[in-house]
Amino acid sequence: MATDIAPLTLEQIRHRKIDLPVCPDMLVRLSQVLGNSRSHVDEIVGVIQVDPTLISQILRVANSAAFGTARNILSIPQAVIRLGVDEIARIASFLLTKRLFQQGTRAWTPACEALWQHSCMTAVVARKLAGRWNPRMSDTFFTVGMLHDYAKTLLLQVAPGDYPDLDDPVAGHGEALLIWEQEHFGTSHARLGGELLTHWGLPKTLVDLVAQHHLPRADSGQAGQLFDTANRLAVHLDEAGQTLPLSPDLLRALSDLGIDKEVLAVISREAQAEMDKLDAMRRAGNVSSGAHRLVGGVDPLERSASEKA
């Protein structure tokens, strides 16, 4: 198949009667505040406190088993004191991006679950690697991890039944997927994702990292190379927190970051613990998982709660 076809654009996707997801204003504002190194804790709290639904979800999560012993946290300022502003910002970013995933999928299919799991793992690993490089970028890298493959939700609708299996670590990721996308759409999910984040008005740092996350490492800056490493490592981390065989190229990239096999083993265990926490947060925030799929656009967790009321 020819590869010189005109690139698929957001406007063309609209013409196919596929609705573009609307990014929550709160995610745009939170990303802007978190991306500003001069932002104060009060600014972050102020952004969160204008969204009653988000407040309710954060408090449910903060008081859940995801954070260990039972708590009685009644407000966002109190949650910040007890858990820290970084943790609250991460919870908020997690819940807001989950809204986007629910919006961008008509039904919670196995492909959606695979995409969600990879996004979460990438966010967790990216946050950990950023913490070793520039801790101030940790929250930004977490959000990028959650959003970096989001455009795949659009491509799944453009080519239903034909898009490669996202649960396949070879066909659903990396070079094989990029070749398939180029042949069929004249673009990639990364470039389309950058266009989508620009459309939403998200900060340029997020846009660039998403749009460029499959560029050759020589064409990426230090931040791009670090995120590329996190993304590829996430593909290799299985549900048990162990690593599948790593390519020599990925091993060199990890070595460049000062990560040897022992450190990698620690990161793998910590990543799985974080994934367990995110799954508990998802349940506590009444956000659907693979075991609780969307039915008729309604979160079954919320529906069952209303039926019991």
What does this molecule look like?
This protein is mainly α and 309 residues long. Helix content is 62%, strand content 0%. The longest helix has 24 residues, at 110-133. Mean pLDDT is 84; it is low at 287-309.
List the helices and strands and how they pair.
Blueprint: H1 10-15, H2 25-34, H3 41-48, H4 52-62, H5 76-83, H6 85-103, H7 110-133, H8 138-147, H9 152-158, H10 174-185, H11 189-200, H12 204-211, H13 222-236, H14 248-256, H15 261-284, H16 300-308
Helix pairs in contact: 2-3, 2-6, 4-6, 4-15, 5-6, 6-8, 7-8, 7-13, 7-15, 8-12, 11-12
Q: What tags apply to this protein structure?
A:
single chain; 309 residues; mainly alpha; Hypothetical protein af1432
Short description, anyone?
This protein is mainly alpha-helical. It has helices at 10-15, 25-34, 41-48, 52-62, 76-83, 85-103, 110-133, 138-147, 152-158, 174-185, 189-200, 204-211, 222-236, 248-256, 261-284, 300-308.
